[in-house]
Protein 1
Amino acid sequence: MTPSDPKLLANIRIVLARTSHPGNIGAAARAMKTMGLSHLTLVDPAVFPNSQADAMASGAADVLENATVCTTLAEALAGTTLALGVSARRRDIVAEVLTPPEAAARLLGEAQAAPVALVFGNETSGLSNEELSLCQGLVTIPANPDYSSLNLAAAVQVLSYELRQAWLGRAAWPQPEIDAASGDEMEKFYVHLETALGELEFLNPGSPGKLMLKLRRLFSRTRLAKEEVNILRGILTAAQEAKAAPRNRNPQ
């Protein structure tokens, strides 16, 4: 693809998680459209649709009309192979921390092969550790350290601008190194992993605690390919079958 091809930008989702104020949704839609982005996904918004969102969107009403509304972040990330969370604070749950230009380059490179996402959290609390566990990296905007709180729509504008600048400034992007597993494929793997570890009595299935979050971070850091996920799930299935099989206590 070349930068003149809008299909590359069309593969980038802007995901707003648990948005409190509908005006911020509209302002974010406007910020997106000015930079050529159109795929807005909302996760459990407090109020949407809403007249305040329409008013703040100004000429970007089409972005709101075509927005996808999901109940969970996992649902919003279905089909993506790369999701980057945006936060002013570094969290231990995400291994890789990127600058906005680094994030833009990574997203555009991956968007050649599959949908990707930038994930923004709630205006007050940001992204939770559980939400960050669904992301493969973290993006931080180098704001004033004495006052780093950035309005949601302003943050969307900054990252959207970086994406457009990178898109305009490069004729070709390196192809993704692996045929990466999608977000929903990884979620199925994590469900399988937790189930298998419970059956193997490695963790308490009623209270998996922080172990699954640490395992998510481990596998997020390694960026699994589709084939690798299939291999790991095959190992888990074999372990489950071996655990369930009756033992022959009197071999002949």
Protein 2
Amino acid sequence: MNVYLYVLIGTGITFLATVLGASVVFFVKGIKPTFHKLCLGFSSGIMLAAAVWSLILPAVDMATESGVLPIFPVLIGFVAGCLFIFLVEKILSYYEKRKNLTFKRSGVLFIAVTLHNIPEGMAVGLALALACIENSGITTAFTLAIGMAIQNIPEGATISLPLRNEGMSRFKAFSFGAISGIVEPIGGMITVLLIGSITGILPYLLAFSAGAMVYVTVKELLPESQSEGKSMLGTVSFIIGFLLMMTLDICLG
């Protein structure tokens, strides 16, 4: 079996799903404040559920399988992810003041989701590479890729819709959403090249991405979804987003 071809196909599916989600921005004519809060709450639910089921729990499983006490890579990676986004916020804030830049919140969200997609691509690449090497489990590995792809559809929209709402053109907003997913094939191919050494640090990378996503969700998305009234709309959309991503991860992950 051609390991590189299988990994490229599997991670390519997850990337195209992100592109599909980002393309939603072309079909939404205008984003009203009410719909904006609905999207923020929905995105918050998706990101928190993904942080738990797509990142933290797999990190625990991988660390346990490698004989490492899982609490250490999870704690270290999670805290490092939070600190990283905190520093990114400070840097962006500095350049906002100096260069009169905008899109701070969406810029941080883009970074967090992109970081989250890197270990996802690595996980899919690792599963497909091992299946090819052992000449078994290809169907299971592609099921993982399809599960990741389905959950990437709303994540692509999570990037493009807020950018569009802040005034960015439809094409640019779509491009940023699509770019956030291109790291998955890259991560998958890197995993194939470093398959002998990447498994040890993958739990840290997964937890790192979880920390980044939780920080952005709690710091930026949730407060905005609850501001200026209509808190119930943001709460209900959060629950729907959380349940959707949880269901996808449990059933297909």
Protein 3
Amino acid sequence: MIDGILFDVHRTLVDDSGFPRERIWRLIAGSGVEIDLDAYYKQYHQLSAQMFDWRRIDPFITIREIHRRRLLRYYELYDVKRDVEADLEYLWREMGKSKIYPEVPEVLNHLKGNYRIGLLSNADDDDPLIEILLNAGFTFDAVVTSQACQIYKPDTRIFDYALKALELDRQQVLMVGDSLVSDVAGAVAAGIDAVWINRSNQSLQKEFPKPTHQISNMNQLLVILNHRRYT
């Protein structure tokens, strides 16, 4: 019997429409630097994959600090003379313009009262996406961030913190998230059933464990929960 659900936030409950990818390019281009957008996107993804590799961040630094270091790297690379701290604050505010996925409110409202609901996110305590959910009126039985724990998913210790916060055993909980690295592999290693929300129809890579369930939108989670409740 499932009694609790842990949700990732970014690209699980909230999209990345407010994220820095194009905004950093505009800051650079607005400083008079000619930078091809396609080449920049390729570089952005490579740099982000390197800097946001949760398994290799040691010692721990905050998400905000990772964003700051990435922005500084770009400004040094293109010799941009801008106020990094002011631009970082701008990017942080812009992330707060991201949108909750359309089906999420109905699903969260349906789950409330029937399950203990928690957020488990590689995020700072003042994460803009968590604030979007809270400001929209959603409440959670637990909100566990990497900053509070000083560790990132997929480290199994952060899942232990979340289970303690929900006051549930690992057999009673589902982890729902979009990342094969942090959400699926982390949950499986922690002995928690994983629901991979695969909104972009990605292929399951062989190096990652198979999730317990795979869905393409959050409505399908309700079908899984209903099936597990009565089987």
Protein 4
Amino acid sequence: MMDKSIFKISKMDCPSEEAMIRMKLGYIVQISKLDFDVQNRKLTVYHNGNIEGIHKAIAALRFDEHLISSEKTAETIAEDATGQRKVLWLVLVINAFFFTLEMTTGLVSKSMGLVADSLDMLADSFVYGLSLIAVDSSVFRKKRVAKIAGYFQLLLAGIGFFEVARRFILVSEIPDFKTMIVISILALMANTACLLLLQRSKSSEAHMRASMIFTSNDIIINFGVIVAGTLVLWTDSQIPDLIIGAIVFIIVTRGALNILKLGN
């Protein structure tokens, strides 16, 4: 018999918050399993005692949490860690590839929308990579990697904001709408494939469900860049591309700040 404690965490709404909670609880040896329900903002902790320490660690993150229930359970804990690693490695490789593709084509076509979307792909790669590193690494090493990843991502987002502002103020070349649309369609197909892979894993584990939500958001961003490319064609203006670029850079910055919190 072990303890099963359920927490309501009101401010947990993306993989970054989940990763922060995982790291915060990583040093508590009494914990056997963490089961996240991101959509309903609930966390189920399977543990052997020390509920006070667990609650205190979660409360330190200030995610507006409260303990719903804590009771003994005879549930069996079983995880297909190997299968999950394979899926995460595959979506990591896909995201890393499309980061390179979108960054290159974005610079060549002068599209800030593609450049911003490439950084969003990079942000995904960081999240997947941190999840994989966490499997066999110490909390200290994970924090160090999180800091490096967060600062690097924040630096790139800052450069992106500067370039958006520069292009908005100065008259610059209109981006190639054909490249924007074609590459975004390919990225959309890639993210859809990633989502299908994650769904086919049929995993109820936290990081897998969170990854599905993260990838679903990426699909929305891909549609946004496609719409921006279409508006560039219709308006013969760079403004739609700069707007979508700025929006995605805001999303990337938020992700970077959340990743940096992991290093604290």
